[in-house]
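Changelog note: in this version the structure field was regenerated for every chain. One regenerated record is shown below for reference.
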Amino acid sequence: MEFIDYYKILEITKSASQEDIKKAYRKLARKYHPDLNPNNAEAEKKFKEINEANEVLSHIENRKKYDQYGKDWKHADAFESEKNRQNNSQAYANRANAEGEYSGDFSDFFESMFGGSGRQNSRTKFRGQDINASLQLNLIDVFTTQKQTITVNGKNIRLTIPAGIENGQVIKIAGLGAPGANGGPSGDLYITFSITNNTKFKRESSNLYTDVELDLYTSLLGGEILADTFDSKVKLKVTPETQSGTTVKLKGKGFPVYKKENEFGDLFIKYQVKLPSNLTEEEKELFTKLKKIRNNENK
């Protein structure tokens, strides 16, 4: 397996902090994202390399293993375990020799006791390393359940992404990590979701929040307006004398509840009254009259 310099891919030095790694990854992932580079094979290849580098360097333990073992970092645990086994074996052999119980190679000692089975039994099975990957999506992408294919370590993995998944949420896929050693089981794959909200709605769990402008006349006299929900439009009845900052709740018009079919949070709409501008002389006169009427009523 050829050595890949993950630091070089992320355009950082080996002394970079975890925050530096995160910033570098986000910058390059945006630059080479397939959505911004359609039909660009080079950009797609670069995007995969960036994700692979981030999978390793963003995980502190994996980064340590990579720094120490390079291209063989996935088998670091197996190397360490074998090293400890050999050190323990040698220490046992040295002790046995000092006590006069045995002299010779430790593997020969096992052969003499177990008829040659010791060397075979020493091939311990080691579980493969877990792999950490990240997947970037837009908020609109997780409003409905969808299927998506991602590439991890050269393998295409078909995922079903449930509606309502949260930003920063991690899901585990058993057995899709690095292969084990000596016939051991594979590790697991952990996928962290990075969800960008480029809508006018603020999301908090399954609830959504947004502002809607009201003209002065509707806020004073009442009426009907057409307002946006996340995936449609609804008619709202505005009561007379609605104040700026008034909030109304639309039950069930929020975001899907994660892994709960046909369950949605609520949508909270805050009214913002917009005052008219560029008044005509006639309008100014009318407002002046209204002011006088109001002042006389309050006397």
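Spot check on this record: Residues 76-98 form the longest helix (23 residues). Confidence is low (pLDDT under 50) at residues 100-121.
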